[in-house]
Amino acid sequence: MLNIGEFSKICAVTTRTLRHYDDIGLITPNMINKENGYRLYDISQIRDMIFIKRLKEYNFSLEEIKEIISTNDNEFMLNKIINKKLQIQNIIKQFNDIEKQITEDITNLKKGVDIMSFIDKIEVKLVETQDMNILNLRQRMNVEEYGYYIGKLFEIVYSNHFKVEGCPMSIYHDSEFNPEDNDTEIALPIKENNKFTRILKGNTCAMTTFVGPYSKLNGAYGKLTEWIEKNKYEFIDAPYEKYIKGPMDGGDIITEIYFPIKKK
Question: Which ranges of the sequence are coiled-coil (predicted)?
Answer without folding.
Answer: none
